[in-house]
Amino acid sequence: MGLFGFFSRDKKESLDKGLEKTRESFFTKLTKTFIGKTSIDDDVLDNLEEVLVTSDVGVETTLKIVKRIQDRVARDKYTNTSELNRLLKEEIAGLLEENRSTGKNDFSSLNDLPVTPYIIMVVGVNGVGKTTTIGKLAHQFKKAGKKVVIGAADTFRAAAVDQLTIWAKRVDVPIISQGMGADPASVAFDAVSSAVAQGADVCIIDTAGRLHNKVNLMNELSKIRRVMQKVIPEAPHEILLVLDASTGQNAIEQARQFIAATDVNALALTKLDGTAKGGVVIGISDQFKIPVKYIGVGEKMEDLQLFDRNEFVNSLFNEN
Prior knowledge:
Layout: H1 9-18, H2 20-33, H3 42-54, H4 59-76, H5 84-98, E1 118-123, H6 130-143, E2 148-153, H7 158-171, E3 175-176, H8 184-198, E4 202-207, H9 214-228, E5 238-244, H10 249-261, E6 266-270, H11 280-288, E7 292-296, E8 304-306, H12 309-316
Parallel strand pairs: 1-4, 1-5, 2-3, 2-4, 5-6, 6-7
Antiparallel strand pairs: 7-8
Helix pairs in contact: 2-3, 3-4, 4-5, 4-11, 5-12, 6-7, 8-9, 9-10, 10-11
């Protein structure tokens, strides 16, 4: 069974620890909604709405969840507040399942790549953990027995190339770079060409994350894609947007900007272990109909995990 092909005890413990702050905050708030209440009435549902919004689930997604629970209470005659946890868990799990990817970039194990070389274009603003995510992802693929090539196409900052080079050396995978100020599309072309020539399984390409001028960002990302497609017509197979979960609603705004600029089809949420705002995973997935594919729940290499919807919900609700 391949890496990530099953949810191991270590990964479960890592996830539980990573979601600890979110879980404690969420259930502290949720418990307060039950004080003095024995039945699911309008006051309980109003309080539940407040809990979800203040847990960074987002207003639109919160209203959807509360409406579904309200409908189930009316239809199935649920009245006891003791049933509310189960209803909430089922509706959150249902939303995440609805937004599951069914395309070529959906796989449950890093061994199950649909094509090779599998091209991942990584986007996201500076500071969200983009470089670290690329390094950890390269490590995970290599650990799964895959040959990886990294492309340093964020040439706007010298530090971006330097940091990625350090990660490539640490993980011991080749990196294609041309230094600061080089044409990002040229770097991406070289990286994809090198991946094909070396018989690589995966090519991960970093890109600049400037949001101050969305038109320039859109043009740059579009050019990178066009140039890669000269080598592999369907590239990139995955456009991975990296977001910092600890920024809560700011992450949602960043998602909106990047989704407008390019065809994002996968999300990575980092720094979940350092925040109580893990509810943003639910809101972002639902609001943009783009699946969360990877989550970062710690600093270790193995703490970047393929997102498992069921295990996430089980961990959030503290169940095995």
